[in-house]
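Below is how a single chain appears once it has passed through the pipeline. First comes the sequence as given, then the structure the pipeline wrote out for it. We keep one example in the README because the format questions we get most often are answered faster by looking than by reading.
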Amino acid sequence: MRYSTAPPAAGPGAFVHRALFYRDPAQYAAGAGGFVRAALRAGEPVLVAVPGPQVEALRQYLGADADAVERVDMTELGRNPGRILAALWEFADRHRGRTARIVGEAIWPGRSPAEVRETVRYEALVNTAFAGRATTVLCPYDTTRLPAQVIADARRTHPALTEEGRDVRSAHYTDPAAVRADCDGPLPEPDHALALEYSGGGLARVREHAEAWARRTGLRPARRDDLVLAISEAAANSIAHGGGKGTLRLWMTTDGGAVAEVHDDGRLTDPMAGRRRPPLASGDGGRGLWMIHQLCDLVETRAMDTGFTLRLHMTTA
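Resulting structure:
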């Protein structure tokens, strides 16, 4: 089976977001490796952000050409899917005036349902973030090991597909706003949670409450500090942008992880908030959300008629 080795055709300023469906290592190497090699021949900058074993597979396929590629382990970069877009955007920004090529494999076997849903949100946001920019993002999907729903969602979030060696348009591509709305379904309720309501002037109490609770978890000190800082940033955003008050809930997961949820009456008007590094002087809440994404292992967001919810996860690993 022959895979297209040329990057998808794109004129100046065009953006291409393509899903690569593969069944085995040979298809993966031919599809992703061929894409990278062709981009290098064209003198275009390439970022490869895929899980560790796939990084090594592509390095072997590319041989000496691998040294010309920027590589990153997606299991580290994308542990929280909310971090990925900022890294891709910064790579493209460093190469303004040139067509940037990115291989981004953000869903791999073993991702939790919550992680998968936030990754679907990320894939939809890619279409908004890079619209009109000279960037091609190729996203590999393992069709033999990933759930059928993941593949179905990939067809909704990618305007273009490479399937069975053919480059085609996705008949199921869906408006990014509709996909994001689908990702905003109700979050599962915890069995038990410690709740605290807060309002203006109550940030010190929120922090003290969170610190006391975090000391009773199995998190390492540095991880506890990161979670408490993320909670503080989320609560501060509630007071500044979410109606001046909010509710904090805290609970432990069955595997020893810690979860903090902040809910308020706010509305998320910018779906990109927190997904890109904001200016140092930013005062619109974007910097706090960006910090939260960097600090936590998973951030679930819900923008609904009942308000805005941030659910922050921290694992013991």
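The chain has ten helices and twelve strands.

See the next section for the split statistics.
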